[in-house]
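Sample 1 of the test manifest.
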Amino acid sequence: MSAFPSLAFSSMLLPAMPASTVSPPSFVQTLLPAAILAVTAMLLMLTEAFSVSKSRSYQAILAAGASAVAGFLAFQNTQLPAGFILNDRGVADGFSSWITLIACLAAGMSSLLALGFFRQRNAERGEFYALLLFAAAGMSLLAVSNELITLFVNLELMSVATYALAAFWRRGNRSVESAFKYFILGAFASAILIYGVALLYGATGTTQLNLLHTALPNALKTTPWLSWPGLILVLTGLSFKIAAVPLHMWTPDVYEGAPTPVTALMGAGIKAAAFVALVRVVLHVGDSSAVLLHILSFLAAITMVVGNLMAIAQRNVKRMLAYSSIAHAGYILIGVAALFTTSHWGNDVGVLSVTKVATPTIETLRPAALQGILFYLLSYAITVVGAFGVLAAIEKREDDGAADAWDLNRLSGLATRRPGWALAMALFMFSMGGIPSTIGFLGKLYLFKVGISAGLIGLSVLGVLASAAGMYYYLRVIVYMYMKPSPETEIGLRHWSTEFVLAVSAVAVILLGLLPGPLLDWLSQAALFIPN
Amino acid sequence: MSVEIILFFVFSVCTLAGASLVIFAKSPLTSAMSLVATFFFLAGIYVLLFAHAIAALQIMVYAGAVMVLFLLVIMLLPLKDAPPPLRLSPARWIGALSSATVLSILIYASLQWHNSLETNTTGQNALMYFGNLEDIGISIYTQWLFPFEALSLLLLAAILGAVVIAKKRI
């Protein structure tokens, strides 16, 4: 039984595919979105070298168009049967296709945001969009990876491109510091990850995730001194990438210092791709020991609490959204922890205790949890792109990364000066806070529902309480926009591409919040590869 | 004691000495040259592990090309005479403590590993063909094609990123 309600009119966009004629996925089909992104990136590099045209706006449009095409192909792939590709180095399933779709969405939206942003600052370059598409290709390939070395290489492809994007627009110490911090800490996390992979290989003799799944339980018994450090190091490296507390320190500085369109990409795309890496790894190693469930639920708890508490103190809206992205990672971690409760009933650890609930088995719980995670990632991606889009729009050209560029005061009276932006921002804040009739509410609803049916009742209650506390700082933004007098200072200029992104995200937030049926149907039809 | 064991001890002691010198040397130039030495002795250990191709690549790429880059960067750095003295802040203590923990886990692991090594003698013949260029080439272009091609994208993105960052100001 699916965890989601379904509506009848949903599958009209999809190719009809009766179950009897399905064939295993071909690698061409699976990798086509990533290939389109990568080839367009190379094309953009060439335009920078050979183009004689003065105007460079077509580069952003090209990047957005390639993302849209790749996203559409990924969407069609979501309904293909699951299976291994490329000598088992890759896995093609609904999960990887949906993450590819989210990556394309994030890349397309951020390149449109960047179009207005960099045009007004006279800093349009083809390299920027090329790096953006390389990052998106990395995310898409990461979602396909089924082997730890492949996963590492694709994670690096995504990260290296993003380090350069963070350093693209260097104004003042803040942005230089941000890019440098991101690079050093990111490289450190990657080193920890690959170190853990080496130890796991030493313990089990494989880096293949599906083989690790069978080999690890035995290895944990015979060579615990090797497999445990390996496992912990791999989880540490991945926790850094999803910005889980206590490895979250880089997030506010990096989010604040990076150019705002890049921050939008980080919030929407990088987060989703990092989560797919984490989910793929823990899906295969998580059954081997109950300790991992405890680690994950503990991480979820402190990430939610710390992220929300730290966000309350922020007056800088960009930093506030960075801390809120940490909190959202915490909510998603509930879904990740929920993947394993059926294997470890009755292991009590205080507030995080797992209560045996009658209904779910591993066959129903895991798809529900994966769909919940996917829905949440998608809803968060749509919302966060819009929220950072508003911040990019109000940013003035002269700000040059000044410290008060994103202070709450800048949003004062936005409702009278730019009613459309204010309305969109209010919707995004409602969605992030989880007010009903927005997509963010449904994301939280399904995730907490999965958490409760998985028996993580304490954790889900904590999640609800934490998101209630989070309402304070989301609503504060709305108070400033609608109830404070507007200062005389100038505000960012309009640009059609920014307004387009805001409009699309705002409509998606409300439309998918009111009519989630088709989306849920597509999600529940996606064939998910789940090791048993 | 066979020749391999003696060579292994020579190489490993020299590698460790070189690596320590990289960290503790006062002059960056000494550090860089010790790194060259470390790479060379590490290549010796690779040879003992039948990884001939990796050993050759190690010398050509790391001891050769990468080190030239290192020296060039050091040449460009404005070097001060005395580095700032090392202060022990709480963060440093935590760092030292966690490094010590990891090191002790690894030492324990390798000791345990050593004890269990006696029973594991399979794959001696496979090792003979393990490290040659043909074998590496075949496995890279068949089983490992996906990560290998992804690596080429990664290098391209890294070059592009380096070019973007090297630009003075956009």
